């Protein structure tokens, strides 16, 4: 079992313990009302755990409670891990951020961009510049997701078998070939659109490193910083700790089980999705947040330089724009007002515009099953939330957790 527990009196870290307990009250109500199956959250400051709490069940039907070693599908919280992997290779001089990706992924040598028409008869034109590495890291490549349901190209993704997952039997290389054959939504670098860009980035990591993505993660990231319970599949011996996946019931929004989608994590995937494929524990992902908060080092193992982490967590959108100004008004794992985007993370640029008590410079991301994390360098606070309710837009959990954490700071 992971050793994840409060390390000191919250008051010594600048928190009012009674106010922190409001998290239990608010999130416990979600469980009591049947809206969440269960949850676990971790709050740290200055590298020490100030608060760990949980309520409810990892498996409602079996009556199994959430425990500290519960395994959670983290979906898009895989993206920061893939981004770290890519930047480790960047630090080794393997590529420049401005390099066209077709140097390693030749299928992307001649991308075409949608201009008009329908999904049945799209009209396209050649891209005016190549897709570059930084476009993948910032979701500005012009790629998309089939689940957006907002653009004719989204429909083309669905027709090709890409909506919530990837087609059976297609590995990551084959998926990249398929995506390269579909039109881009816009010219590379001209807009922001949440997309399969990080999955393509994972393939770049594979080709450049000569390792499969799971091997790179295990050898270069997970083993060095002690993430022993994170991977692309939950093994047979660990199934007892796996949380079930739930979705809201239409009308009541009560959490109902969805094994058809949830059981995928128990099988080895044909496609190693660097954008969505991992399962992890609160303890493991806590270690990842601490690695980030400490500037790329944990337990004497430095994977990235502090300068690189600081660079990744700046807003890279042109002109310092936020997602509301530069992005398409579609689903993403964070709000758009007051948030920019870095190399793998959202970046809070304007707390007033975002209507949040967090600090400018906070970097974060979340996952489709309502998991989330953020790192606030200004206050040296990290927070992570784990639950299994798909989609993450069902309840305002992340916004409320920010309120509840920061109102407790003294």
UniProtKB/TrEMBL annotation:
InterPro entries: Beta-lactam-related, Beta-lactam/transpept-like, Diverse_Enzym_Activities. Pfam families: Beta-lactamase. It comes from the Bacteria. PANTHER family: BETA-LACTAMASE FAMILY PROTEIN (AFU_ORTHOLOGUE AFUA_5G07500), BETA-LACTAMASE-RELATED. This is CubicO group peptidase, beta-lactamase class C family. It comes from Prauserella marina.
